[in-house]
Amino acid sequence: MYPKATISCPCGCMFYANFQGSSQDNPPKCPQCNATMDKDSWKALRDTMASFADFNYHILKWNAERNETRLLVPAITISTLEG
């Protein structure tokens, strides 16, 4: 599984942050205005993406080992209620 997050910057830019190949010490940066995500926020986002990848890994494992139904979750969509 290759989790990636869509990030919305206050400048209006939307960009991706990939879990694979990323570093905890190198938070994502907006390609338009160069705003950088706070390191604590980046750690929390990486932890969330890792949990998501682990969930799907376990679904595959349990399918192979216990013949459980292979119901993978390819994406989670979250809507913000900004006013």
H-E order: EEH
Proportion of helical residues: 25-40%
The averaged pLDDT comes out at: 91
- What is the makeup of the main sheet? 2 strands, antiparallel
- What is the tally of helical segments? 1
Q: Which class do the helix and strand fractions yield?
A: alpha+beta
Read across the widest sheet, the strand sequence of neighbours is: 1-2
| Beginning-to-end CA distance, first to last residue | 34 Å
Which word captures the global form? Answer: elongated
Short description:
With 83 residues, the protein is α+β, with helices and mostly antiparallel strands. The protein contains 1 helix and 2 strands, in the order E-E-H.
Topology:
Blueprint: E1 4-8, E2 14-18, H1 39-66
Antiparallel strand pairs: 1-2
Describe what you observe in this structure:
Helix content is 34%, strand content 12%. It is an alpha+beta fold and 83 residues long. It has a two-stranded antiparallel sheet.
Features:
83 residues; two-stranded antiparallel sheet; elongated
